[in-house]
Design goal:
This protein has 662 residues and is an alpha+beta fold. The chain folds into 6 domains: 60 residues, Orthogonal Bundle (Helix Hairpins), CATH 1.10.287; 225 residues, DNA ligase/mRNA capping enzyme (D-amino Acid Aminotransferase, Chain A, domain 1, 2-Layer Sandwich), CATH 3.30.470.30; 77 residues, OB fold (Dihydrolipoamide Acetyltransferase, E2P) (Beta Barrel); 73 residues, 5' to 3' exonuclease, C-terminal subdomain (DNA polymerase, domain 1, Orthogonal Bundle); 72 residues, 5' to 3' exonuclease, C-terminal subdomain (DNA polymerase, domain 1, Orthogonal Bundle), CATH 1.10.150.20; 68 residues, Rossmann fold (3-Layer(aba) Sandwich). It has 24 helices and 20 strands. The strands form 5 sheets. The chain has a 5-stranded mixed β-sheet with strand order 2-11-10-3-9. Strand 15 and strand 16 form a beta hairpin. Helix 1 packs antiparallel against helix 2 and helix 12 crosses helix 13. The longest helix has 24 residues. The chain starts with a helix and ends with a helix. The chain binds 2-(butylsulfanyl)adenosine. The site of 2-(butylsulfanyl)adenosine has 14 residues, from strand 3 and strand 8.
Length: 662
């Protein structure tokens, strides 16, 4: 075959393979045998090996990508990925319907199962999948393209010619059967298991090695078009177009004429729940017409044109073996049920919250009782009630302790207040949570400092605040059980490394109430230093868009507390970075879009991305005409070619370092 013929054959093979792939994985009705399919794939692979320049990223041979990643690039969602407003009973659904009708008149609905998996977005340009990302915090997610490509029901190329450019959203899930099998095998090997299919899905798509992802039986349902170059009038039509383009749509999606019918259908779905090979935790009710959807609009959190109906939680009975008392980060004492392990839909539960002592008393739950336990979605399992009919003999009640179970301080229980607190800010239990939070992945990310190490450090009196971590000596650590020369050094190294973490991580790690990751980033980029932040007045904080009054007040309280100021001074003296180099006003790379391709020599991708972001730039995963800089490392990919074609500014590593002042 000459090259032209090879090209033609390759195209033919790809079309055929894509077609059979679609029949098999999306429509579930294969037309050829696995053997025949493998033959086609083998032929394509062999041609592509002979002519590597003909390999394209959307070839069916490219599902399982090469090397593990060092970290994920951040993706800015073109439109915030909102969450859904929830309802828990049918009357609330009727109220939703009233609101909708008041605003836009008569409506039709589409009802779909609410898949309990991990939300993702898929972007197609010119018919080719160019980017897949996680939902993240709704504003920014992680680029997980190579992981999503391993899911066979995600088309690498769209079918037909109708749609070329589109971004869709869907839910990746771990099928229930596969989940049980996976956990069994893991347990046999003594490896960690997932608590439920949702965590399994979310954990799998955030694996750095696409080969591991490929080995898991993930699947997807698509339910939403974010934008496309073709307009649709209704959800129903959009869904049909998505089907035609090769996407996998949930077969239980149904158009419905009014709310009462929708409620009936919610019941049908709830009954079907146990028979499906994926977890669903509710139904989603959507206004069918897109023009009515636009008219209804959205709040800052969720669309006004759709709502979810959450199914009743799943329950089981088991014995309450004991009641433990936990002391939280803020000193609140919480009674916790120690249960005889019981299996509830995909997870074995051995502990559940009893919320607080009032609740315990009101529900009259005693040690030794048979109790009804329920678990719904991502909330902590809870004890619903004790089954009094099964109570035998005299069982012990658990009242409010007089002393903190950890530090023995006299506990505080204010008249009329539910919370029972340990007032001792130095209580080892509280300290432990604070340190754990400070060292956590999203905060200062201190490797090797897990819960049991923190426990040992506290028990041995080696630390009584965060700053003490930085004064630890190797001799100290070596006195702890289980530590050897190397592990002690590793711990010291990671603690030292954390000194240079970004300001936003430090702010988050301080554990100020209501200040999550997003708020911390906002504060860091507004104020650039802890000192400035500590001096801002609450009213000014309230003005910051996206912060909220409660958060502003909590920040004020935090910095008005002497101990916290002392801690910050200590951290500064130790040399922890408490300010950011770039100031908001003069962030030199503000709004500039960067794309990296190929390996960098002197810094890792995550570090390079951080530098860009600190200076106000945006890191994106795909090249387009509004990309400002393309940074090219060793063995660059197709992004390099595209950048050249578009005539973009291309920098090598040295030039990049100069630009960012490294
Ligand atoms: S529509 C505004 N439809 O549930 C968000 N979401 O709790 C648009 N989900 O983030 C969502 N099945 O990840 C929609 N049929 C379905 C869904 C669904 C599962 C997830 C989705 C969303 C979350 C909200």
């Amino acid at each position: 075959m000459n090259k032209k013929e090879v090209k033609k054959r390759i195209k033919k093979l790809r079309d055929e393979i894509n077609y059979h792939n679609f029949k098999y994985y999306v429509e579930n009705s294969p037309v050829i045998s696995d053997y025949e399919f493998d033959q086609l794939l083998k032929e394509l692979e062999s041609l592509e090996t002979q002519f590597p320049d003909l390999v394209t990223p959307d070839s069916p041979t490219q599902r399982v990508g090469g090397e593990p990643l060092e970290g994920f690039t951040t993706v800015e969602h073109k439109k915030a990925m909102l969450s859904l407003d929830n309802t828990y009973n049918y009357d609330e659904l009727r109220e939703f319907d009233e609101r909708v009708k008041k605003n836009v008149g008569e409506v039709e609905y589409v009802v779909e199962p609410k898949i309990d998996g991990a939300g993702v977005a898929l972007l197609y340009e010119n018919g080719t999948l160019v980017r897949g990302s996680t939902r993240g915090d709704g504003i920014r997610g992680d680029d997980i393209t190579s992981n999503l490509k391993t899911i066979r029901s995600i088309p690498l190329r769209l079918r037909g010619k109708k749609i070329k450019n589109i971004e869709v959203r869907g839910e990746v899930y771990f099928p229930t059967e596969g989940f049980e099998k996976y956990n069994k095998e893991q347990a046999k090997k003594g490896e960690p298991v997932f608590v439920n299919p949702r965590n399994a899905a979310a954990g799998s798509i955030r694996q750095l090695d696409p080969r591991i992802v490929a080995s898991r039986p993930l699947n997807i349902f698509i339910y939403y078009i974010l934008f496309s170059d073709k307009d649709f009038q209704t959800q129903e039509k959009a869904i049909n177009a998505l089907k035609e383009a090769g996407f996998r749509i949930n077969p239980l999606t149904k158009k419905i004429s009014n709310i009462e019918e929708a409620i009936k259908y919610c019941k049908v779905l709830e009954e079907k729940r146990e028979t499906l090979n994926y977890d669903i935790d509710g139904a989603v009710i959507k206004v069918n017409s897109f023009s009515q959807q636009r008219e209804l609009g959205e709040t800052s959190k969720h669309p006004r044109w759709e709502i979810s109906y959450k199914f009743a939680a799943k329950q089981a009975t088991t014995r309450l073996n004991d009641i433990d008392i936990q002391v939280g980060r803020t000193g609140t004492l919480t009674p916790v049920a120690v249960l005889e392990p019981v299996y509830i839909s995909g997870a074995t539960i051995s502990g559940a919250t009893l919320h607080n002592f009032d609740e315990l008393k009101r529900k009259d739950i005693r040690i030794g009782d048979m109790v009804l336990v329920e678990r719904s979605g991502d909330v902590i399992p809870q004890v619903v009630k004790s089954i009094k009919e099964k109570r035998k003999g005299k069982l012990k009640k658990k009242g409010i302790p007089k002393k903190c179970p950890v530090c023995r301080s006299k506990i505080v229980h204010k008249e009329g207040e539910v919370a029972v607190r340990c007032p001792n800010r130095m209580c080892p239990a509280r300290l432990k949570w604070r340190i754990k939070y400070y060292a956590s992945r999203d905060a200062m990310d201190v490797d090797h400092l897990g819960e049991s190490t923190i426990d040992k450090l506290i028990e041995n009196d080696l630390i009584d605040n965060i700053a003490d971590l930085y004064n630890l000596k190797k001799e100290d650590i070596l006195t702890l059980e289980g530590f050897k020369e190397k592990s002690a050094q590793n711990l010291l190294d990671s603690i030292k490394e954390s000194k240079n973490q970004s300001l936003s991580r430090l702010i988050y790690g301080l554990g100020i109430r209501h200040v999550g990751k997003y708020a911390a980033q906002l504060l860091a980029s507004q104020y650039n230093s802890i000192d400035k932040l500590a001096k801002v007045d609450i009213e000014e904080l309230k003005e910051i868009h996206g912060l909220g009054d409660k958060t502003a007040e909590a920040i004020g309280t935090f910095f008005a507390t002497e101990e916290n100021i002392e801690l910050i001074n200590k951290l500064k003296n130790i040399g922890i970075k408490t300010h950011e180099v770039a100031r908001t006003e003069d962030m030199p790379l503000k709004g500039k879009k960067f794309v990296f391709t190929g390996g960098l020599q002197s810094l890792s991708r995550p570090d390079a991305s951080d530098v860009v972001k600190q200076k106000g730039g945006i890191v994106s995963s795909s090249v387009s005409k509004d990309t400002d800089y393309v940074i090219v490392g060793e063995k660059p990919g197709s992004k390099f070619e595209k950048a050249k074609k578009l005539g973009l500014t291309i920098l090598d590593e040295e030039e990049f370092k100069k630009l960012v002042g490294k």
